[in-house]
Known about the structure:
17% helix, 35% strand, disordered N terminus, 270 residues, Jelly Rolls, six-stranded antiparallel beta sheet, 17 strands, alpha+beta, 3 helices, single chain
Amino acid sequence: MLRETGRAGGGKLNSRGVIDRPESVRIPGVMQRFLSILLPFLLVMPATRADEAAVEPGKAFIDGRGEGWRALGAADFENVNCDDDTWTWKDGVVHCTGKPTGVIASRKPFTNFELVCEWRHLEHAGNSGIFVWATAESLAGLRAGKGRLPAGIEVQVLDLGYEENWEKKHNKKPDWFTSHGDVFPVRAGMKPFPPAAPNGQRSFPSKRLTKGAPEWNHYYVRCINGEVRLWVNGEEVSGGTACDPSTGHLCLESEGAPVDFRNLRIRELP
Length: 270
């Protein structure tokens, strides 16, 4: 290692007022050119990383608090075609046994609204869902014993294990569903946002953000003027437009496996 002592290593001022260093401490011309090229990058790189961090898009985490929001509880729903003990409400959590397949529905219909909730599956490969704009006619049919699920737009609530099991069974990845927030019509109309399933019916999520059982997941669903958009754990991933119907009931779905919902909150919009 070179170490300068005294006045710049004993160098003297030349006629231009610049220290004329001894040979032992002079920087070779090649090294000078290298440093002249590298130094600007060294100075810019930290600032570039800081700038990138500053413009990174944030997550739109809506917790359902604020003006116009209200909680949804047991009094807001009625059993349609499940057993009396399929759904139980306790300490802000609604628990579903998953049996039989069926739904509970909101007592009143909604048109334009925002909905937030958290959900978690309690078993590997659990299946459930949230219906928006479920028709009164289809719910009447379910009460009469015709079918198990209503007509409307379904926001899928599916455990990661469901997709894993299908892949193991068929030795290939599923191309008609995902476990990360599909949105699709059930005996209804909808133009899905891309990416869409090969059959053009489902809106597949643009990101895979769902957490597996028994972790909690957060959904924010916005339904306005026949358009549905879904945020999973803070990021928008799927949805569709030109929905028909574009008004109707909210439903929580029981479909074979235990599932919990909590922090159900809604805000009606004009």
